[in-house]
Design goal:
This protein is an all-alpha fold. About 70% of the residues lie in helices and about 0% in strands.
């Protein structure tokens, strides 16, 4: 007679390893933040932005993996959402704030005040109990500072303009406007995902390019997706039930 007594244990062990791998995958974003900092310190901003790009890829995919393998149900001792927020704060906020503090893209004398504003406003945004709503909206500007910093650096607008943009976005963190979750909002999801993939590809080529003119041209065209994202967010926010805003 075939003995199946070990099968459940084997399956359970394999599932636990898979869940652990998903958490490790999320945590790897913190390593990418460190690599990005080292690249910027070494005077290699293109490499630094590529590391931040890799962190975006992880952030865009780890949620799907977590849901696919039901990580919260299998390893309850680790809070996957908390881990994700810690890593996101490093890659989306801390590293970009550090870049701003060096005044590489903003006027002299503006660096530290703006960097502090980024850190504190985003700390508020990340810790707000309604930061993510049940209908898949982010409350206020969702601290996409790594993307913002890439555009400010690559497009080369005057430092004063860049500084004003950073200040305005810091204030927008506190404004209770809903910004859609790109991959989880049902309305126009196929179009949003398709456009997001194209945008990500263009952004990668722009970050990879060693030709400054090509990088700027691609970055400028890629702004079409952020404009679409903001427009979609404003339209859907206006249609939301006031009770869930």
């Amino acid at each position: 007679m075939h003995d199946d007594s070990r099968a459940p244990t084997s399956v359970s062990r394999r599932a636990t390893w898979m869940v652990g791998a998903v958490h490790l995958y999320t945590a790897a974003g913190a390593v990418l933040a460190l690599l990005a900092l080292r690249a910027f310190l070494a005077g290699a901003p293109r490499e630094g932005f590529l590391w931040l790009y890799a962190a975006i890829v992880i952030d865009a995919s780890d949620g799907w993996l977590a849901r696919r393998f039901r990580v919260d149900q299998r390893i309850s001792a680790i809070d996957g959402a908390l881990l994700d927020n810690i890593v996101d704060y490093l890659t989306f906020v801390f590293v970009p704030a550090w870049i701003v503090s060096l005044e590489a893209v903003v006027p002299v004398g503006w660096g530290m005040p703006l960097a502090v504003a980024m850190l504190l406003s985003s700390a508020y945004g990340f810790s707000h109990r309604q930061a993510k709503s049940a209908d898949h909206f982010f409350r206020g500007f969702p601290s996409y500072w790594n993307i913002v910093m890439f555009y400010l650096y690559t497009l080369g607008a005057p430092p004063v303009v860049n500084g004003l943009i950073v200040g305005a976005l810091c204030a927008l963190v506190f404004v209770p406007i809903g910004f859609v979750h790109p991959s989880r909002t049902p309305t126009l999801r196929p179009w949003t995902l398709a456009a997001g993939v194209v945008w990500a590809a263009v952004l990668f080529v722009s970050a990879w390019s060693s030709d400054g003119m090509t990088a700027r041209w691609l970055a400028a065209w890629s702004l079409l997706f952020p404009l679409y994202y903001v427009g979609l967010s404003l339209v859907l926010h206006a249609r939301r039930d006031p009770a869930v805003r």
